[in-house]
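Case study.
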Amino acid sequence: MHDLAPLTALGADAPLHETIGAVTLTEQPDFALASLSARRGCEKEAAIALRKIIGHAAPAPGRSTNSQGLVAFWVGPAQWFVEAPYNSHEHIADELKAAGGDAVSVTEQTGGWARFDLSGETATEVLARLCPLDAPQMQSGAATRTSIEHTGCFVICREALRAFSIWVPRSSAGSVSHAIETAMRSIA
Amino acid sequence: MNQINRLDGGQIDRSQTLNFTFDGKSYQAYPGDTLASALLANGVRLMGRSFKYHRPRGPLTAGSEEPNALVELRSGARQEPNTRATTTEMFDGLAANSQNRWPSLAFDAMAINDRFSNFLTAGFYYKTFMWPAAFWEKIYEPIIRKAAGLGSLSMQEDPDQYDKGFLHCDLLIIGAGPAGLSAALVAGRAGASVILADEDFAMGGRLNAERFTIGDQSGADWATSTVAELATMANVRLMSRTTIIGAFDHGIYGALERVNDHIATPAPDKPRQIFWRLYTKRCLLCAGATERPIAFANNDRPGIMLASAMRSYANRWAATPAHCIAVFVNNDDAHRTAADLVANGVDIAAVIDTRSTAPDSAYFEVIKGAQVINSSGRLGLKSISVELPSGEIRQISCGALGVSGAWNPNVHMTCHQRGRPVWNAKIAAFVPGPDGPPGMTTAGAAAGVFSTAGALENGANAAVAALASLDIKATTAPLPRAEDTEARLTPFWHTSRGKGRAWLDQQNDVTVKDVKLAHQENFRSVEHLKRYTTLGMATDQGKTSNMGGLAIMAELAGKSIPEVGTTIFRPPYTPIAIGALAGRTRGMAFHPTRLTPSHHWAKEQGATFVEVGNWLRAQWFAQPGETHWRQSVDREVLGTRASVGACDVTTLGKIDVQGADAAAFLNKIYCNGFAKLAVGKTRYGLMLREDGIAMDDGTAARLAEDHIIVTTTTANAVNVYRHMEFARQCLWPDLDVQLISTTEAWAQYAVAGPNSRALLQKIIDPEFSITNEDFPFMACGEITICGGLRARLFRISFSGELAYEIAVPTRYGDALMRRIMQAGAEFDVVPYGTEALGVMRIEKGHAAGNELNGTTTALNLGMGRMVSKIKDSIGAVLSRREGLNAPDALTMVGFRPVQSDRPIVAGAHIMAKGAPHDAAHDQGYITSACFSPNLGHSIGLGFLKNGGAREGEIIELVSPLTGVNVDAEVVSAHFVDPEGARLRA
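After joint prediction, the assembly is written out as follows.
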């Protein structure tokens, strides 16, 4: 076991957790992330490999699946991100590669992104100040890419109207979370 | 004087009194007032001075179309010029000042312009300030700017915040008058998602301003109860104080919501305004209509206003501009102004109707077939001159005159995508044409349906139709009884009788005579008319004046009004502050910032940061006692070359390339060969653009047969990724390649200097040998460090020293940098920033962004031979163009000053010794320069014609602009370790 201590995307020892008005923003550092792409002509094999790990059929465009904390969401043609609890699946990329072999290209993305959860009564109003998504229409499990604070992010609806996860490029986590907090204060 | 012109009734809350000031004088008002209604109630008609002639002016309207009553609202940093008093919602403590006058509104010295009006006619600027040309900028323009203009800026930073937002709906309804409310009820009850937007703070449109009844209620009460019902529907979003400013592509509308303009100061963290982008499936424009004036001599005196505005002031705000009023009309509708005012106890001097067929009234005199031909009263209307059908002139005393030339539907937004309105002779007005923005329909007065009953029915039906096209079934409920009179008018645009100027566009001081002059001077197209006379420009965009101008031009040209046509309406519908367009994107939040994994550590070390794209990178790390950046940078360079230094290089783009054809793909992307790159090896690569110019350089490290990591320069990371993705998807879709960015997934540090290996050996787990034999120059591999953390190691060098780049998952980046410092303490490790990085790469002669500047080729960079001839790659063919391969092509070389204390200056141009300093003798230019602490003098890199063959030549570096003239010697670009022994050590 190595002896290097991790730091959150915001440069703190502990994750951000803030409630403003009726919404709460929580940084979620304890998730691993990996991308999986089907190699040319291997879409079927890639889907089988994905099912082996996430226990679900590969999600369709705009959708995510969730099975015991293993979440997959569609990010491009024959391409998905898989999110998993860090403690049990730090090496989710290796797991996916082992399942898919030469049929898939897998890339570790854990360090590339930071997850922020936004929840509460007015969560969709906060999102309306941040991005062009029609958040009130997103059903639980909807997942899509959008731009927040000029930064490409993924938004996953965990519970319609109430709870969303926002995956933010890690280096921009400070600016994007600041924008989210600013919107929360605007709404409050 | 205490609200002497306040009437009974109205939709104001008399239980509470609000205090406000205008030009420093205190007045009182009620909640529900506008600034204009409150001033009128207080007996103030004079609210501003005109733009050009400084003529006294009062409000012409009661709405957003107002040309005259513009004030500077608020004070200090919040002072805002050109605010319409007619739409400014009253709040306690409101402070407004008139503008465009000196020293006071009642006595304005600049009113002298009015005496010289003969010289200031249309085209005045074009004719008068033609010569001498040199006078324009220094003399004419400042004088004109001082004399003209509307309001002044505070020149202070806006203390308020502005939000942006995004909303979606099935149906956007613009305007909450009878048509809009009726449509919203239908759509809301059908369950469609609806946004109902209205620029006013009270929804209802004209229902709030008229005495009409709907069913058993007053129109205003019906509006209130309808809004209350709509408010209970979760699928309906009511947006009052919201102006739709434009119709854009794909059903997108811009909306400005003034959430906090109606209070003195927004609460902390709350926006003053929100600029919304509305994504709509359908749009129903129910924007109503604007009454148009009739032009006659001196028709601009305070107290002369639109007849409908008078009704608004009386019925909604219980205010009248005077206690004796006349009305001048060409239609039946405006007779109601007299009727309503009589009902409110105001005296009606007379109704002057241009038509001999005008209806009679039992309550006031109607003078038929007559015209108002002049007026008097210096700072406010005192009397009017009326020409009777007999030709006799009758003077009528009155403190205010309501004018109505009938109504123009507000078609503006139907024209935002170049739709053209069509002429409706029945109402003598333009109505929306068939070619409006896709998805938009119109209803109510905006569509030329002027009666209340017509608007209610039209709005409901239009909503049903709009939703039907979305497969949403909606039905209309039985509509309540409402006024249903037909519009009866005889077009009448201006009187040709009477002496004095007849004002068409009061905001720009354009008269009937100006239009005639434009016609006479052959500026006859409407677009020319507009620009020559300025008719329809500025903050009101001619909402009350355009039609008058067109009618007169038609008359002069002997054409019909539709033949003359209209100018194009463009967004925004009403003015919008730049601050609202900027939103939160200003100051420190102008763009998002990307932080490196070692940022927080670097901050602790007192680093100075520099913006590189959105990244903040440490530029240097000043140590105690260092007072100049050069001291820090020199120390960092010398320390690295002497022992070891570390630098965060995470910002360099990293693209993960996988797939069976990964190497074949890169072989096409890079101009040099990559097909045979061995696993565990890294190679320098140069990418060309399709046109043969160098695009970016970097390294590619082969971790496996089907896995290569490409690095790019920091600045080009996105461009290169986009370029590669395009090539993958569009050029070679048959290749098995997958790309994804991993730039920030890995914290990557350069560890450079003769002791770099010794330092890293303390961190890297012992099972991985990094001796020169096991891990030679350009090796790469996956390793573990610090007892098992996965990491990547690359033996590459930008500094020219023995060097490595080591990468770990980003969350451990901070800890790794601290560990490197700790492990390197025995070697006096120095953290170095981008400045030292730059110095070392210039010393080594490595090209960077300065050299890859979008105009240079591989040949220019001294890498011509890298462009492989045995394979095809992007840009290879066009790089062989003759013109890019001339014998005297620019070549990258080094420069050192002949006198060692002189500087080499980046940007300087190169001239042969003794040659003239001009463009014809230009020999090239310096791209990078720095002080080399290793050599003890300034050095530079640059492009010199046939530079490779000119080593030893003394040339002149010049910058005539900055007075630079330095003799320099052409040398090799490799100042330090030209053989490369160090990096292979």
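Observations recorded in class. Chain B has six domains: 1-154, 162-289+409-468, 293-405, 594-651+745-854, 652-742, 886-984. The domain at 293-405 of chain B is CATH 3.50.50.60 (FAD/NAD(P)-binding domain). We will return to this complex in the next lecture.
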